[in-house]
Write a structure and sequence with these properties.
Strand content: 25-35%
Bound molecules: adenosine monophosphate, glycine
Low-confidence stretches: none
Shape: globular
Helix content: 25-40%
Radius of gyration: 21 Å
Largest sheet: 9 strands, mixed
CATH topology of the domain at 2-96: Rossmann fold
Mean pLDDT: 95
Length: 425
């Protein structure tokens, strides 16, 4: 079959790498893709949210399945767009409906869903510009640090954690009254701070059945030792060593099962990934967020560990037959390290020539922000390449990535030298 994959990051290169290994994938189109996907598939220069242009491609190319990488098209309703179009409704879309995507598109929707279904999460309340003073008073009832979340999509920047009450009140006013995050902060969720170590659980569901994919942990901060600004993710490892069977059982029973059941009970169509962000609070998993897609760079460690044919798996999702599939997971650990442009996540330069990719041995180089020009690969974004390796444990895997990174170069290149640092011992 012909498959169309939407997106242009490391996540999409990893998905493309896996999809093209399947004998069922006769042709893969990636919109818009990057220099990495161009090497294994056909890039189409279309925005992921231009649904009319996507429709044209799908009909022209006789696409049978659309795999949606990022959240934007999901939150904007690409699933429903296909369902409501006579020419498109029989084409499989891997991703949730517009309503299901609200689990990521609205923090308040997610909190209400969690509470309705008795799923453990931090206590919260939400406020608008009309109730800003009540929000400030609510902050006074909490103990620091204070967690403020813009309700809507804010490109990963909408969560602010502050240790001073006054600063938190000022931030709340800026979010609500001065539209600090635009429309996304027209509503703000204030939440109890949870103390513990984070991990992510990835679920693939067909709306009735589910499979739990390997766990992963990402490293969001730009600086060594988890310091500095938040980024999209500077590296990841899978599995998470402390996610033992006791913790995983709690996650499945208390979080995954009620989530999938909740979607079904509420008739929310959902055929795709659920990425559950968790904090392990003294052995008790609590949900901090849902995302309605795979993580990036978590995909670059989770997907390489999956032994199943990904097209078969997605077809089972589309046909609601996920119960007939057995997941096979590589028992080795995987690690990925992101190479980013100097200055990221603030201003950075693009267009730097990347060298050394061909000399990498025994690691996989997934492209993120790259483009091909005149036979060269150029940097074209903040996150540029993800170098993924396997090992008997995560330390070995991380080490292999760093050995190969020594062969890679572009002007201003930066990476975190300490991926996995907090998991030792
Ligand atoms: P989110 O976008 O919801 O994942 O939040 C971004 C980051 O803020 C998370 O990865 C956590 O590190 C942190 N965070 C979010 N909510 C909480 C909370 N209730 N307690 C502690 N940290 C949190
Ligand atoms: N790495 C975090 C995310 O994809 O949201």
């Amino acid at each position: 079959m012909t498959i169309l994959l939407l997106g242009s990051g490391g996540r999409e290169h990893a998905l493309a790498w896996k999809l093209t290994q399947s004998p069922f994938c006769e042709k893969l189109l990636v919109a818009p893709g990057n220099a990495g996907t161009a090497q294994i598939a056909t890039n189409v220069n279309t925005s992921v949210t231009d649904f009319q242009a996507i429709k044209t491609i799908v009909l022209q190319e006789q696409v049978a399945m659309v795999v949606v990488g990022p959240e934007d098209p999901l939150v904007q309703g690409i699933y429903d767009f296909f369902q409501n179009d006579d020419q498109l409704k029989n084409i499989s879309v891997i991703g949730p409906s517009k309503l299901g995507a609200q689990l990521e598109g609205s923090k308040e929707f997610a909190k209400k869903f969690l509470i309705r279904h008795g799923i453990p999460t931090a206590a919260y309340d939400s406020f608008t510009k009309e109730t800003v003073e009540e929000g400030c008073a609510f902050l006074e009832t909490l103990s620091p640090p204070y967690v403020l979340k813009a309700d809507g999509l804010a490109a990963g920047k909408g969560v602010v954690i502050l240790s001073e009450l006054q600063a938190a009140q000022t931030e709340l006013r800026q979010m609500l009254l001065e539209s600090k995050f635009g429309q996304a902060s027209a509503k703000v969720v204030i939440e109890e701070f949870l103390e513990g170590i984070e991990l992510s659980c990835f679920v693939l569901t067909d709306g009735k059945n589910y499979k739990i994919l390997p766990t992963a942990k990402d490293y969001k901060r730009i600086g060594v030792g988890d310091t500095g600004l938040n980024t999209g993710g500077m590296g990841a490892i899978s599995p998470v060593p402390f996610a033992d069977s006791v913790l995983m059982d709690k996650i499945e029973q208390r979080i995954v099962i009620p989530t999938v059941k909740g979607l079904q009970e509420e008739n929310i169509p959902y055929r795709g990934f659920i990425f559950i962000g968790l904090i392990n609070v003294k052995g008790e998993p609590m949900v901090i967020e849902y995302n309605v897609r795979m993580g990036d760079p978590e995909t670059e460690v989770v997907i390489p560990r999956l032994k199943n044919d990904l097209v078969e798996l997605f077809s089972a999702v589309a046909q609601q037959k996920l119960n007939t599939v057995n997941l096979e997971i590589d028992s080795r650990s995987a690690a990925t390290v992101m190479l980013v442009s100097g200055g990221y996540p603030e201003d950075y330069q693009k267009g730097k020539v990347i060298s050394g990719i061909d000399s990498v041995e025994d690691s996989i180089v997934f492209h993120a922000g790259t483009k091909a020009e005149n036979g060269q690969i150029l940097s074209n974004g903040g996150r540029v390449l993800a170098v993924t390796s396997f090992g008997d444990d995560f330390q070995q895997a991380v080490k292999k990535s760093y050995q190969n990174i020594n062969k890679l170069y572009f002007d201003t290149m930066y990476y975190r030298p300490d991926i996995g640092f907090d998991l030792l011992g």
